[in-house]
What does this fold into?
Amino acid sequence: MEKNNKKKLEICFAVHADYSIIDEFLKEDYTQDYKDIFSNLYSSPSIPFTFALSGRFLDWTQRKNSSFFDVIYEMHKRKQIEILGNAFYEPFISMVPSSDLIGQIEYMTDTLRKHSYKRPRGMYLPYFAWNPNIISNLQKCGMEYCLLDFRFFLKSGLNTFAPVCMEDSGKIIFGIPATFEFENTDLHPAAFYDVLFSYASVNTETSIVIFLSRETAVRFLDKSEGKKSWMEEFETLTLLPDSIISLSNSGQIIKNKKIYQKGFIASNVIFSNQLINSSVKQLLANKPNIYSMYAKMIYVHSLVNQVRGDKARKNNSSLDLWRAESGILFNLDLKYEKYNRELRNNCYRNLLLAEKQTRVPGMFADSLNSLDFDFDGIKEFISQREYLNMYIHSLGGKIFELDVFSAYKNYADICSEETGLFIDHLISKDELEVIKEGDFQSAIAKPVFCENFYQDIRFDRLKFELLMKTEGSFRSFNQSVSLRKQFNFNDQGVQVQYILKNESPFNLSAYFMVEIDISVSPIENKSPIVSVYADDQKYEASQEKNIFSKVSWVQIEESEGKTIFTVESNELAGCIILPIYEKISDAKNPIMGLRNLFYWRVDLNSGFETEKLLFFKVDAKKASKEK
It folds into this structure.
């Protein structure tokens, strides 16, 4: 295309080609759409274009439409299109550890080069999730520039439509302004030209990358009616002698630019085309349930990095970890809230697959360790068995993660910070009646134990024992009570011993209750099977509220039949089983899990104590090798 010195605005049309995990859930087929895009673009060699390809799109294309690679190669060879670099599974680039970021970018580069494409020079940032700390990592991967939302430039006081040169720790990278503002536009070519005309500057050369949705790109390149496509009509306008607009691709924008503005752009991200004005890390910190996934991701990252001497094992575990780092799984933008549980399950599944890969047969040993797992300054405790993980938090003294490797699932993950296993309550008779009516949250509005810090009194790695203690005040009389809680971990689960003591000078009359929440829910037409042995009889519980007395044990078999949970008491207990519902109205499945409440009446004189014992057992089928 002949250069015209009068032209002041370079624009680049781009498409983010993706086949997301949501598309996999829905079994979408975009073959015809991409066939139309690539074939029509191939037949219009004068129209430059830029593609940001996701790793999932490349995998899907390899499986379903491998011929696409040949068409893309021909357009790339004749320099019609630019292919941007990307992190393969599209994580929040500013969130993942440096080694994972570099690994994912290089994995994408290697995949592209297998199809004879050149090493990318530019970088696509999913969600435009930017942090200046990533500059050195991008440069290590050979990236010369990246695309940033134009509003980042505006917020930083920069020329909104001119590339910027950014520096961090002596490393530089160029940023090109980009936008999704017109991804679904229905403007005619002339009207669209007039809109872009206002972006041009009379003083400096300006440029912007305009992303189109898949549907819009199909429409703009369509030639089916035997006349010029929308894109060809727009190109004709840019070729007029007095046109101030020229078409280009992202790489050419950098080539044509000789002098750049200097600037600093702070951490930011775009969700649903809205400027968030916050870093991804801050968004994570504000959402405890999502932060727990991030903490697990960092923990598994440390395990993967410890693999030595087995390249295949390390590569396989890294791939599973990278899949779990995919930004869509964290659903920070709440765009796919309807699929939130499926996304979280997918994340945990890949994290557990990665963790399982790090365990070398014959070398892995059962353990009980302590560490600050979730980066809150308080140490947590982790019981690791061959087929079972249990994570215990000092805040609340509860099990907040229950990993079963046969199902590759965290059965404590119910998308709510108030849930877990072995959560302790001391309630009055009136509050018990409120719970029996189904209003659990109101009854525990004034907690005695469950929000307390539990001090670890004894931590025995050899015997796999953890003894914790907390104190509280019971209701209006502020009666002092203490609770000792001992976990004894074994291959099949855990035994939990409670010793409740009345520390006040008055008699204590209350109900001691232990809450065990398990993430089991109906799947299609299959519901969890809940069996209760009470009053010397076996009952089948319904999906609604269930109340039993004189209970010996409760057994829960999940819908898929992979795992069976059994809770047994050393003495007869009352038991209330309540469904835990989703907080969103249009969820695919309204029931997230089951809340199992075991309770006993306690009447204690001053200085007296009582003991309760619960046995929690997990029966799991052998792990499937399918992913």
User: Anything to note?
Assistant: Residues 1-5, 623-627 have pLDDT under 50 and may be disordered. The longest strand covers residues 563-581. The CA atoms of residues 213 and 568 lie 55 Å apart.
